[in-house]
Amino acid sequence: MEVLGFHPVDLLIILLYLFAITYIGQKLYKKIHTEEDFFLAGRSFNKWLQYFLNMGTLSDANSAIRTASFAFEKGLGGVWLMLIGVFTGPYHWFMAGWFRRVRLVTMAELFEERFKSKVLPTFYALISIWLSILIIGIGYKASLRTFQAMTIKPPKQCTPAEKRKVELYERYRHLRQLYKTEELSPEQTSEYELLDALYKKGQISSFTSFTKPFWFYLIYTVFIAFYVMMGGFKAAAVTDIIQGFLILFFSFMLIPFSLVAVGGWSEFTQRIPDHMLFVFGCTSEEFAWNSIAALMVATIIGITGHQGNMALNGSARDELTARIANIGGAYTKRILTIAWALCGLFAYALYSDSISDPDMAWGVLSHNLLGPGLRGLMVAGILAANMSTLDAVCVYLSALFVRHLYKPFVKNKSTRHYINVSRLAILCFLLLGIYVSVTTFSIIHLVKALPSLNIIFGAPVLLLLFWKRLTRTAVYAEVIVCSIVLAVLPHLLPCFETVKHSPFFSQRTQEQTVVRSVHASQEDVRQGLAEEVGQSIRKPVRIPPAGIYYDTIALMNPDDPESPYEGIGRLHTELILAHSLGFNLPSMTPSALLTLRYLIAAILPFVFLIPISLLTRDKIPQADIARFYVRLKTPVHPDPLKDAEEVQKSYADPARFDHLKLFPRSNWEFCKWTRTDTIGFVVSVCITGGILLFFWGLIQLIA
Q1: What residues are paired with 513 via a beta bridge?
Q2: Which three-class secondary structure state does DSSP give residue 469?
Q3: CA 113, CA 631: separation in Å to the nearest integer?
Q4: Collapsed DSSP state (helix, strand, coil) of residue 147
């Protein structure tokens, strides 16, 4: 007996989890007295609470689902979108300390404290809330598709229209295989292009589901909103302990079942194409060594200005707690990322012929391999992992909204009033996230755009922390220009039909046929291309044209093979700039295009920040600037009263820590490393190397 695809035991487990977290939120409701209680839990978290908070916030189920999706669609090269953070671990060790020492509530307050500006914090709050709503939307979309894949409707219960969509997908899948091996006839080529346009627009699928988006979004949002609105950041951290263990459980539970289903490790390795195991991809794919290096640069710049930095580090009782918990949570996610990628490869080995949407790989794997009870635990784990991220995100977004968009206009209200407004804001953010989810087709395209968007404020925050010479005028210019170029125009211009259907913007790269070294399959032996299975041979592989200026290019009218093409998704303004600089984009590989996107996004802010700062001067008193930087150098004491005394000592003597400056008598505020700095950095580098070595060893084992 099943109800909407779930066994009653599964439903019981899911309901028990939902009521447990709701109870926790309700119990913590009476302990919220101040804004700092609601937004930062009174800066009281110890190492364990802080660790689970960081791990839960970073290691959401959407990351698992997206990683499996990327591995299924692009092989291990695509996993770098999620694994790239392994290189940032040593940087996180220092960054966590900086944001705890600055002793603020929101990231926007950095601009208020440093530049004495009310406008910059408002800009930051608006853009950061918008970016976070995109992330919430990604989470909703990933969760919906996983639930849909876990509640597949039997064919006998499908309507004729639903059956037709499945039949068309099966035909498309067959023609796609022929296309890759260059075996399509002219008639089949026309049919393939029509079906490909339907697939890109999400109009055909390999199955239909009991899960309806409206009811899923409604129930999911009600439970998240209730416990976060009640308990604030403390509820997020306490529930993250439960959710953390569920995350670990659901991340690994599919691997043994997948290994049994595929018939053992050797059979698994035979079913994975060689090109999916390139650790750095290849030049004909998006994620090769060059695009991965560019992504790393963009990521390091972007995470410095991330809207959650102040909350995730500022809630710790002291800076060492913040640093240890930060890198602990970050590295846990990277280890889990490898497990998630392995699940994506298992999904490919088992169901590559039947999964129409890579975003559903995790759900299909769970639906087919897990029995009653285990499926309920998987759903509870997915809910736990997603909620552990959404709760923290919603709280620090509500802090941005209330302190920088609401308070400036509605002043002198009670603390309870502002906390209640924060709670209403949380509900609004979740509803806006639903809107993003409904209007977004592909998760991977949105995730690829996030590094460029994070750079808008990541670049000025990075300079703000270390360079006294940075001016308010330069930040204004950079934020306005980069927001228009990287955030507004990419989504605004496609709203105009002339841009969406422009022959120039609908250009694609040239079709390529590349020769790759692969291990021979049974079919290769049958065709006389190899003497035995596993022999290293070289085979031509057809690489279809890819969109240059849009995420996807498809026929405007799928029923007409002569129809002009149109762009779908984000317009890549970075590549428009590259074209104006003389780059020959149609001749480039997908990895070269992605490299250009990230590098231009990373360089563009500094083109404005540094020259304009050198040409302008702020009217901010030097004493105020000195107070900001001396506080940033003052170590945090676990006792709030003693910590306040240390800050006052620093204010009384702004030159208190000048002897620690790496470049004395300069505008650069870099400090000499302490013993703790050095040990943490060395350990972080060793952990990074160990994770990469494990990843490489796993690939060698599969290959």
Answers
A1: 542
A2: coil
A3: 11
A4: helix
Those residues whose C-beta lies under 8 Å from the C-beta of residue 1, and which sit 6 or more positions away, are 7, 8
| Sign (positive or negative) of CA dihedral 220, 222, 228, 231 | negative
The answer to whether 641 and 325 are in contact (CB under 8 A) is no
List all residues 6 or more positions away from 163 whose beta carbon is below 8 Å from its beta carbon: 155
Residues near 6 by beta carbon (within 8 Å), at least 6 away in sequence: 14, 151, 375, 376, 379
The candidate with the shortest Cα–Cα distance to 385, out of 59, 14, 147, 143, is 59
Q: pLDDT above 90 covers what percent of the chain?
A: 16
Q: What distance in Å separates the CA atoms of residue 337 and residue 277, rounded to the nearest whole number?
A: 15
- The DSSP H or E segment spanning 517 is strand 512-519
- Beta bridge mates, 3: 6
Distance of CA 362 to the CA centre of its chain: 17
Residue type, position 598, single letter: Y
Sole residue written with tokens 């608006």: 126
| Count, residues in the chain | 703
The token duo for 585 is: 């984009």
> Which own/partner contact pairs does 128-133 have at CB distance under 8 Å and 24+ positions apart?
128/307, 128/397, 128/400, 128/457, 129/307, 129/397, 129/400, 129/401, 129/429, 130/487, 131/307, 131/450, 131/453, 131/454, 132/307, 132/393, 132/397, 132/429, 133/429, 133/432, 133/433, 133/436
Q: What are phi and psi of 105, to 5 degrees?
A: -100, -40
Two structure tokens written together for 104: 């603020």
CB-count burial class (<10 Å; 0-12, 13-18, 19+) for 44: middle
Amino acid at 58: L
Close Cβ partners of 177 (under 8 Å, ≥ 6 residues apart): none
The pLDDT tens digits of the residues spanning 3-40 come to 666 678 888 888 887 777 777 666 665 666 666 666 66
Q: Is 648 a residue whose pLDDT tops 90?
A: yes
- Report the alpha-carbon distance of residue 563 to residue 511 in Å, rounded: 19
Beta pairing class for 565-571 and 550-555? antiparallel
| Structure confidence by residue, pLDDT tens digits, 391-416 | 677 777 888 888 888 988 888 888 88
Helix spans in 156-212 (H)? 160-180, 186-200
Contact criterion met (CB below 8 Å) for 21 and 383:
no
Catalogue the E-assigned strands of 190-337: none
Is the separation of the CB atoms in 518 and 273 below 8 Å? yes
pLDDT confidence of residue 217: 81
